[in-house]
């Protein structure tokens, strides 16, 4: 499953260039993971053909869409507050229509329309192409809902508009859905079964980005390592593919290789990796290409084999450690980041200690850490009691966060006095005189602007660091330019 961008903060409202002749106004806001942001770009692209330009002013919108996340209860509560806000604005502007997209739409189905009556339209993650029809139903005063999950929808034929873009980095989705069935996770219910997008359409989207000056692409999926294109359909049906389809199938290692070769002056990242699906071949491809970043987001969730089993993760603590050893041998210096859930049902103090010791073993560069939140409908919610008291979850979470801080600081300080390659993304938040970008290992680097510009690959000598940021001075352009 993939990394969350924002959960507690206000979602990001997204804007794109106006299309001439369009007169209606769309306010579209996204919560949750990178996949949701990427999906909002697809939705905006569909609506640009229906006469909508985006706006950042909620009050002037004809249509308000919120792309939602269900991963934890807190994420859903944030969206609920926004729905209240939209409805308050709707009282002043009764012509305004409100639609809910994404994972909450899929999870709650008609509840928002029928019981709560707080939206006009409900659209699940596989039904965005139906939005123009659903809007007609709204205009005719009918409840508009489509939450059908698809076997083959990948939106490969829609060229997404880039919302809120820096013009340099972009997400490109390569798989949708997830077949893993981790017992805590709502995603298989909200995003359906796993399917892969055709390599040709992925490469075409990247070609287009390259021609428009983009310099970095992150290949996205709930589980990228299990990417498998064999001519269409669900991953689970691969066994039924013809011999020809099997012989010409493309897996993740091959896809990465194709991207890196096709665009040697572009950087590639990917997210998210699932330990049981990450094969050695992918590691060799990363090691082989300087333009594939040395960074792997490798959620572990727990350091205890017993808890991993309860979570239905398909690996043990030891297997995870072996994979980490392989990463460190094949890609020296590779950054590794984690997702960890603390306070899963039945988690003991000993299990918690196992998580802390695993963190020490891996020396994670970053981490995204969460207290367990029971999600309705998941196997854990149906079969297991949420029995770790809130204060224990909180204390364990704090211990994990503190340890990660310590490890992150150790990991950033390894770059002191080294010269790293940085892609400039934007002006630093703290200082107008400094650029901000990232090195291959995904650490933020800030340095004085001099005559460099956004989109340049620059060599930067590091002379200071905090837990999350490297500070340095440019020494010249890199040969990626
Ligand atoms: N409670 C807490 N955290 C969760 N995650 C997924 N489901 C839950 C849940 N029910 C976390 C996992 C996942 C990340 C995206 O969110 O760590 O990797
Ligand atoms: Fe993304 Fe949906 Fe998972 Fe939230 S619940 S992280 S939006 S896939």
UniProtKB/TrEMBL annotation:
Domain Radical SAM core span(s) in chain numbering: 164-410
Positions of the TRAM domain: 413-476
Subcellular location: Cytoplasm
SMART domains reported in the protein's UniProt record: Elp3 (SM00729)
Alphabetical keyword list: 4Fe-4S, Cytoplasm, Iron, Iron-sulfur, Metal-binding, S-adenosyl-L-methionine, Transferase, tRNA processing
Function noted in UniProt: Catalyzes the methylthiolation of N6-(dimethylallyl)adenosine (i(6)A), leading to the formation of 2-methylthio-N6-(dimethylallyl)adenosine (ms(2)i(6)A) at position 37 in tRNAs that read codons beginning with uridine.
PANTHER family: CDK5 REGULATORY SUBUNIT-ASSOCIATED PROTEIN 1, MITOCHONDRIAL TRNA METHYLTHIOTRANSFERASE CDK5RAP1
Name of the protein in its database record: tRNA-2-methylthio-N(6)-dimethylallyladenosine synthase
Origin species: Flavobacterium supellecticarium
Lineage: Bacteria, Pseudomonadati, Bacteroidota, Flavobacteriia, Flavobacteriales
